[in-house]
Automatic annotation (TrEMBL):
One Gene Ontology MF term: oxidoreductase activity, acting on the CH-NH group of donors, NAD or NADP as acceptor
A Pfam family: Flavin_Reduct
InterPro entries: Flavin_Rdtase-like_dom, Split_barrel_FMN-bd
Transmembrane segments: none
SMART domains from the UniProt entry: Flavin_Reduct
Protein name from the UniProt record: Flavin reductase family protein
Domain Flavin reductase like: 18-173
Species name: Sulfitobacter albidus
Amino acid sequence: MFYRPADGHGLPHNPFNAVVTPRPIGWISTRDAQGRDNLAPYSFFNGVAYTPPQVMFASTGVKDDADGTKDSMLNIRNTGVFCVNIVEYAAREAMNASAKMLPHGTDEFAHAGLEREECSEIACARVKGAPAALECRMTQIVKIEGETNYVCFGEVIGVHLRDDCLVDGMFDVTKYEPLSRLGYRDYTAVREVFSMARPDD
C-alpha cells in the first residue's frame, strides 16, 4: 500500500501514529501565571541533545480557552519553564486521567489523584514518586506546518532520579517499566533490554 497523506489513507484509522512507534511519553507539568498547576501527557516527545541536555515535545491540538493551543504550551509561553515527568507502567491510569480535556486552570494533579512535589530549580510542580523528572528552561517554541502545531524545546537544568531505579550507578529502566505510546489506543511497557556495542567502541 502507498498513500499520499494529503489525499487521505482510506483506512478506518490513521496509520501514521502506529508506524512511528514506540514513542516515549513526556508527562509535562507546568504552572500558569496565576500559580495553578497543570499536568498533561504528550507522546510527541524525546531527548534531542546531550550537551547541554535538551528535550522537545510537540503540541498538536487546541483548546477554546488556551489562546490557540493547549494549556501546557500556553503556560510555558507565559512562564518559560516546564518539567518532564517520566511515566512508569504503574502510573498508566493516572497518566490517562490527566489527558482529559479540562477547563483552563483545572488541577490535573488533583483530578488524577496524584501527589506533587515542588521542583528545585524552577517554579513548577512535579509528580511525586515519578522514576525521573527533568526540570527545563524553555529555549524556543517553534511553529510548524499545521494550524495548531507547535514544538517546544527546553534545556534540562535539573534532574531527579528515583533511588530505587539506580543500580550499580546506572539508571535501570526495568525497575519501573517505562510506558510508551503506540498507535490507536495502544501502549506498551519496556520490560526487557539488550545491549550492543557500537562498531567504533
